[in-house]
Amino acid sequence: MSSTTTTTKTTKSLSVVKRESFFDDSFFTDAWDDFDKAMQGVLDKFDDTGLKVDVGSRNHCRDVYTKIRSSKIDEDLYASQALQITEKDGKFQAVMDVKDFSPNDLQVRVVEDRVVVEGKYHKQSEDGSSVSSKSFYKEFTLPNGADIDSVSTALSKDGVLTVRAPKREGGAQPAGALTSNQSSVQQQQSSSVQQSSNSSVQQSSSSVKKVSQSVSQSVSQSVTQSVSSVKKVSMSSSSTFSSTSSSNFSSNVDSSFGDMAKDMQDRLVFSHDNVNLKLPGGGSK
Predict the structure, then answer these.
(1) Scanning 89, 100, 261, 280, which has the fewest C-beta atoms within 10 Å of its C-beta?
(2) Who contacts 264 (Cβ-Cβ below 8 Å, separation ≥6)?
(3) What is the pLDDT of residues 32-56, one digit of tens each?
(4) Any idea what the Cα angle at residue 14 is, between residues 11 and 18, rounded to 5°?
(5) Pseudo-torsion of CA 68, 73, 76, 82, nearest 10°?
(6) Cα–Cα distance for residue pair 7/46, rounded to 1 Å
(7) Mean pLDDT, rounded, of the chain
């Protein structure tokens, strides 16, 4: 049996507050420049007279823009629409011309981290015998620092819509996000731990090397002392036998001593401080 998981999207409809004319209502003051830029974009695309939008030419430029919009809207709802999006320091603002869309059909919603604007465009024929309708849809993704719960929207009497999302208070970030300072501290802590670990390993390695060298030197010294003792015993034994024996006896003794020396070498017993030499037959020298 297969199971289906359904993901529910968080959606909130926003109330569109109606205001006075866009350039007459101080509520829209901080959006005036944005709308000027939006009109300039349309003029640059469709007007070849080189008009530049500023405070002095704003009214004239808006009249030219309106004519362009009216002539192009049937071809494309979006190409001639004045629309400007600004994002700064976590704040979001969208300003757009929706004059040709029915206010009653205009909807603004917040869907998770996005703002969705929907509407309908209606056009009646000159003789009134027919009406055409088109749907309008725009979707904007809010920046990470925007306060999604405080998104607001307003519509001017002359059809300019603004959507605003303030910066999240306290500069709070989404869960799981790290500030640059936190990231820096973690990197420093990680570096410190790594350096400490490397130092410990180096110290341990140094101690092991010292112990190894000490043991090696001790063993080497013991072996050297043992070999020296063996040489002394051999020399002493050889001297004793040589001084008390004839040539024939010496030859036999040398042969016997060779066997005895091999046996002594096989039966050497090492200790930390000295070497004990056991001779054949239970005797020791």
Answers:
(1) 89
(2) 230, 233, 277, 278, 279
(3) 999 999 999 999 999 999 999 999 9
(4) 165
(5) 60
(6) 44
(7) 72
Please give the structure tokens belonging to residue 29. Answer: 């003051």
Q: What is the pLDDT of residues 176-186, one digit of tens each?
A: 333 333 333 33
**Residue 251: pLDDT over 90:** no
Q: Look at residue 221 and tell me whether its pLDDT is greater than 60.
A: no
Mean pLDDT of 144-163: 95
Detail the DSSP E strand segments found in 19-113.
83-88, 91-97, 107-111
Decide: helix, strand or coil at residue 138: strand
Q: In whole angstroms, what is the distance from residue 231 CA to residue 239 CA? A: 12
What mean pLDDT comes out for the span 242-267?
Answer: 46
Among 9, 11, 28, smallest CA distance to 20 is for 28
Three-state DSSP state, 182: helix
Packing angle between helix 32-46 and helix 58-72, nearest 10 degrees?
Answer: 60
Rounded Cα distance between 171 and 166, Å, is 11
Contacts of 209 (CB under 8 A, 6+ apart): none
Q: Which residues of 7-18 are buried (b: 16+ CB within 10 A; e: fewer)?
A: eeeeeeebebee
- Write down the residue that tokens 């719960």 correspond to: 149
266/230 Cα distance (integer angstroms): 12
Tell which residue, 108, 106, 111, 141, has the closest CA to residue 11: 111
CA dist 34 and 83 (Å) reads 8
